[in-house]
Design brief:
Distance between the termini: 56 Å
Number of domains: 2
Radius of gyration: 24 Å
Order of helices and strands: HHHHHHHHEHEEEEHHHHHHHHHH
Number of helices: 19
Strand order of the largest sheet: 2-4-3
Number of strands: 5
Largest sheet: 3 strands, mixed
Shape: globular
Length: 444
Amino acid sequence: MKKSHTCALLLCILLLGAGGKRQSLDALITDFCSGYKQLNIPGITYDYKEYFNAIPPLENLQRQEEFFSSMRSRMLPFKAKKLKHGKQVQLDHLEYEIEFNMRRIALEKNWVTGQRMLHVNGLHGLQDYKAWYTLFIQKFTSLDIRPEEVMSLGINELERVKNEMRSLQEQAGFKDSVAFYRFLNSDTFVIYDKQELLNLFHTNDSIIRTWLPEFAGRFRIPRVFPMEWPGAGAHTPPGMYLSKTDNAYGRAVFQYNFYGNRFNRRSIDWIYMHEALPGHHLQWCFRNMKRPDPLQELGFYPGNFEGWACYVEYYGKELGMYRDLYSYFGKWEWDLVRSARLVIETGIHYYGWTREEALAYWKKHIPGQDDIAEREITRVTNWPGQALTYKTGAKALAELRKKMEQKEGTSFDRKRFHRCFLSFGSRPMSVIIKHFENAYHHEK
């Protein structure tokens, strides 16, 4: 038998299932998820040092490469145009996972066979730091975005946010920024009573639920329980959501940082929207109304869920939030932090900034928040990619909305838009963007 015929026969055997019949996409996805789990690929980790220390030996990486390569071959017979919309999404999701892992494995093989030298000040010290940082950006954002674009986005957003904040300062009657920030740091904006804080969170929950049907439709959303973050310290983030299945409390909780028995009153609205409603809690509940396929259960895409939670903060007034100037200002205060993190993180990992340069940039652009500078700079140094997910994901959603508004005109339906995004569940943002318009027209 000729060599070319032999190769063709082997390919046919690979592409066909048992009994000589072509496998369904569902069967292929099941095989992929099962095979993926058997490879014992290290789970998601934020700290890059933990990530590199968990990279397996070369023989394990070669076994992974063979698996993903075979899955790539088995995808060949599937033609997206011949599949229904939902199956097209699954096919592209599967392709995303295969291609990302092939890129990851190539870099990890070079790492294993190279010097394996880690640096404490970020990825820039690696021989292939540009490729590594680009991989980490995709790993967390699930977007095809270059470091230069991240830096540009951060610089532009910093200017936009500063303009919003200056406008609010003027509306508050302060011409002098020093006097304004002295007022912002006064006890006027500090809550010392935990019960008062809980009451305000419950009030927000009630108000948002009243307006939610006009924002995303009518759903039965279980309660989410605010609770003090156990053991929170000076470097603990302001809040975190834990779904019912991700904690030992047996219920969905929103943990808030009450370290030092104090909480910033200006943060109440945006943090509740982000962590609870209509942010993480709504997204988690909506995902569980559907029946996630195995790929959704397997993947982890922070650009999706952090992007959504960041996006909804911009529409707080549509949900009854930001009832006074200062709660709205608080939203922009944190948006300023997120914008600066884009620049600082890219500066550290891609452009080789020192910690001193990063701190100087922070102090130049973020007034009144020196107390969290060390925490945030440490965060973006140790967790490359993670802090980018908020603004990049929100930007992708905002651009999708603008595109649909322009195409639909007066027929644009924001409820349908939001339901459509939520209906994708846990998918890479790049896959959602590709299929969004088609999904919007399928959404009822």
